[in-house]
Amino acid sequence: MSWKIIERKRTLLAGESGPGRGKSGGRLSCCLVYPNRYHSAMSNLGFQAVYAMLNAHPEVTCDRAYLPDRDELEELQRTRGTLLSLESQRPLSSFDLIAFSISFESDYLNLPTIFRLAGIDPYAAKRSPLQPLVMAGGAALFLNPEPVAPFLDLVCIGEAEPTLPPLLELLKRGAPSREELLLEAAQLPGIYVPSLYRPEYDGTRQLAFDPATGAPPRVRRVWDPSPDSRPTVTEIHTDATEFSGMHLVEISRGCPRACRFCAAGFIYLPYRTRSPELVRSEVLKGVAQGRKVGLVAAAVSDYAGIGDLCCDIVDAGGKFSVSSFRIDHLDGRMIEALKASGQKSVALAPEGGSQRLRDLVKKGIDEDQILAACDMLVSHDILNLKLYFIIGLPTETGEDLEELVALVRKIRERVLAAAKENRRLGEIQLSVNPFIPKPFTPFQWCAMEPVKSLEKKWKYLQKELGRLSNLKLQMESPREAFQQALLSRGDRRLADLLVAADRLGNWKEALREREFDAEALVNREIPLEELLPWDFIDGGDAGRLRREYRKALDGIAGLNEK
Asked: Highest taxon of the source (predicted)?
């Protein structure tokens, strides 16, 4: 055990504050692992909420662990040490339960690394019953857990509030054998036991997904019907986070809009809001601590009474920021409060560059509304705008990109005119992201555009917009987006690829070694009748997804189904 690693962990703990710190003495010992760096882990509100829930159980003790940074990783390799938890500096292999919190598919890549550093076999079938039980939850697993299913004993399909309590009671009670424990766990709502299901494949297609005797044929995704049962807020504050000095408060869950490309509009249904009384109480706690309040939701401006809430924060002497706006639902009082709070920049998401594409994804806004929203913001002296667009959407053409460029130029003219009048600088940041087909959306059957084609479109945008003053362009790497798409829509056969990538230290080399045809999974349109790797999850109205898919490709904007 290296003193440098121990000292590093003690320094991190000394920099933390808040009511969510762990405890000792529980009958069931758990280590909650975020498969990325500490900075990312503590910036994740879901990770913090689950940590607090686990430690709130009177008979559970929960530590945290995360992917080591470069210095710690080099020290572990030099000393041949093992990965330790943050709070008690215990080896992960000494816990009863290891629980992964995984929000993003790209973090699937880090699971084999964490198992290796912990001295634990990555494959559940090869682990001894004396080793920790391994489970996982989080948004990535709501969508498609199959690429990492061979690593896991248990998967929580759905939100933690309803799934954790009965599962913890079962784990605390135990069973005569691990096999019996897993079979009993599979009967709980929202609990998926991968070892009880056998997939069959034929090339890129999945032919069957057969449950063992006693296992439910489908696993129902569960959601919290009582959003006021407990707040979701920052439990532990630390400067070593993206939101240093902020107190985050979730005000709603899900999104009522259901844009056809967006998973959040479908996997968190039904859309739920927290009561104004609960939210106001939590945001004022942040103000009382002298922290800026961060209002978190898929669409903050859809929250009823958002203007009043923002004014309450400012009236109490606080400041706030918001995670997202709906272009067609800007609240004037909220904008006034943002200005009073010192907010200098706002993010807007037109998504589609042309009206045809905005109708295709069912964004529900037109160019006049986009420009009106920009006018409202710049008139309130908010002169820095971040615009999110998607390229590579199904059926996209060169004409759609030309309309995107024209729209950005119109917005830039408005920002420059307001900046000149106010004698201040204004800037537009254009964030361009490749379309990635996500499970449980109407576009889950669509193909992702090839990387070379996306790179060609990016070069066009750079040519048309890259030299304009007061405008910055950034784009998610098409190759990284391709990797994310593969992990989003892949099956269990990806687990071997992930292990190979960790062993070789290179994703591309792993693809070559395994002779894996990634393009066949990512760059093809999937027939509607084909079995999808995630079809065993009972996650909502599958018929609605098919109807919306057909409407989109028929060129019909479509309203919500009756």
From this structure: Bacteria
